[in-house]
């Protein structure tokens, strides 16, 4: 079993729920886990951007992480979520 961070767990959930749609080689539409928003993700060469607030403030988000997992074919099958230490 692979241990992953919470951002990776959310990304895997997006994938498992079929919320990540490839538009072309670099552009993707990713529906939020709430189903209320669709974000545009551009990803290439191990880097990307997203139209969500998380990306705007943090420079990375679970929408990009989901696309990265699919692009790199590294979606974990079985996972244990690692708790963040405060």
Overview of the structural elements:
The chain has 86 residues and is an alpha+beta fold. The chain has one domain. 31% of the residues lie in helices and 29% in strands. The strands form two sheets. It has a four-stranded antiparallel beta sheet. Strands 1-6 form a two-stranded parallel sheet. Strand 2 and strand 3 (27-31) form a beta hairpin. Helix 1 crosses helix 3 (62-71). The two termini are 24 Å apart. The model is unreliable at 78-86 (pLDDT under 50).
Keywords:
29% strand; single chain; 86 residues; two-stranded parallel ribbon; 3 helices; 4-stranded antiparallel β-sheet; alpha+beta; 31% helix
List the helices and strands and how they pair.
Layout: E1 2-4, H1 6-16, E2 20-22, E3 27-31, E4 38-44, E5 47-50, H2 53-58, H3 62-71, E6 79-81
Parallel strand pairs: 1-6
Antiparallel strand pairs: 2-3, 3-4, 4-5
Question: Short summary of the structure?
Answer:
With 86 residues, the chain is an alpha+beta fold.
Low-confidence runs (pLDDT<50, min 5 residues)?
Answer: 78-86
Structural domain tally:
1
Distance between the termini: 24 Å
The helix content is: 25-40%
Which structural category fits the helices and strands? alpha+beta
User: How much of the sequence is in beta strands?
Assistant: 25-35%
Number of strands: 6
Average pLDDT value?
84
- SSE pattern: EHEEEEHHE
- Put simply, the count of helices is 3
Principal-axes geometry comes out as globular
Sheet with the most strands, sense and barrel status: 4 strands, antiparallel
Strand order of the largest sheet: 2-3-4-5
Output the radius of gyration: 12 Å
């Amino acid at each position: 079993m692979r241990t992953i961070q919470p951002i990776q767990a959310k990304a895997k959930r997006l994938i498992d729920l079929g919320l990540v749609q490839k538009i072309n080689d670099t552009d993707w539409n990713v529906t939020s886990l709430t189903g209320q928003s669709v974000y545009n993700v551009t990803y290439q060469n191990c880097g990307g951007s997203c139209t969500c607030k998380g990306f705007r403030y943090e420079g990375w988000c679970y929408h990009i992480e989901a696309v990265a997992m699919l692009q790199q074919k590294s979606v974990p099958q079985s996972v244990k979520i690692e708790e963040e230490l405060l």
